[in-house]
């Protein structure tokens, strides 16, 4: 799926020495220090733009719903851009400027069920280029010629070829800016403001220590940085869209979440401000974690995970030969529906020997698996306090083991900050039935076909 756009990135590699080398190169982008000191402040600043945009739209919409799909896509591109490269495309700021200059007589339709429609500012060239290259992966998914068709398109389709050139020029410019910054002997790790900065700084400092010339602009570095962006916006944007729909539908959950957030971020509430980045990155709200996990469980942004059997194996009485692609769905029995019957005698001896209390995960109430219930993720600890239990039931949205999702920590941080700022700032009011279809479409990810929001700014 991604071999055409990022052929030198770990995402497309088998688990070998080169994969391990790439993993080490990017490892610190998921470190607590980077997430807290670099990613979180960038995300808060980016999502503040979204809050400003939606305040403008809510005011102009005058109680009508409006489509949120494009806004979410754009804000998540800018978000991951700011973390990966330290700069945004400027697309949200352009949209805000456009709305502020609308004529005063602009009004939505007076029909209560019709959505408010807004003009769109022209997309910046770098935004168009990055998203065109990213979404070009769908060519390989839809074509009988797979990745070969995708490779041909990237090289010979004029618009895609131009997009690749703009992408490459942008990455070159950001790498050279980072090189200039960290080639200064006065530069330190405190100057790291993006993943690009982090990778270049590490290479410069290491090369200086080893007495060699730095290699900060290799195909591997370029593909890992673009892969960082590629994996970070579409999946998270899809999850946010499902989250908007579930929180709109379940008003009781939304209010409980708002109350929980205000209880956690007491200082922000007292100051009448949004929570600070460091607080959102470090302070835990068990109910928020439960809500996010339930959105992931039922939203099913990734339909499943694929692994390759590295040896012959027996699984529940079935022989799986070495080299077989094994698909593990993220929905269905045990996850969103009652489990299938399994003959316990077919399980491995080690599995049969595990006591129920020692199992990796617990079991949920089978009769409620199709319902949106964040409480299923909450447990009372020994002190009688409510806490989030990540192993309350079987869940594999991010995969697991050595090849589990590399960006899981960043994805969860993005979701945590986004929904904290959103629910703090707005009430997601019910939308008309005709704007609330739950039909989905499967492209690079599993996304809703309709995502409308009807916003009322919170006063406290």
Annotation keywords:
Cytochrome p450; 2 domains; two-stranded antiparallel ribbon; 16 helices; globular
Sketch the topology as an H/E string, one letter per element. Answer: HHEHHHHHHHHHHHHEEEEHEEHEEEE
| CATH topology grouping of the largest domain | Cytochrome p450
The major sheet is characterized as:
3 strands, antiparallel
Total number of helices: 16
Which secondary-structure class do the elements indicate? mainly alpha
Query: What is the CATH architecture assignment of the largest domain?
Result: Orthogonal Bundle
- Our measurement of the CA-to-CA distance between the termini, rounded to an integer number of angstroms, reads 46 Å
Could you list the spans in which at least 5 consecutive residues all have pLDDT below 50?
Answer: none
Q: How many separate structural domains?
A: 2
**Average pLDDT for all residues:** 91
Helix content: 40-55%
Layout of helices and strands, plus pairs?
Blueprint: H1 17-26, H2 32-61, E1 66-67, H3 69-85, H4 91-100, H5 125-135, H6 137-142, H7 146-156, H8 158-182, H9 195-210, H10 219-249, H11 251-264, H12 266-271, H13 277-282, H14 286-299, E2 304-308, E3 313-315, E4 318-320, E5 325-329, H15 349-353, E6 378-380, E7 386-388, H16 408-425, E8 426-429, E9 440-442, E10 446-448, E11 452-457
Antiparallel strand pairs: 1-11, 2-5, 3-4, 6-7, 8-11, 9-10
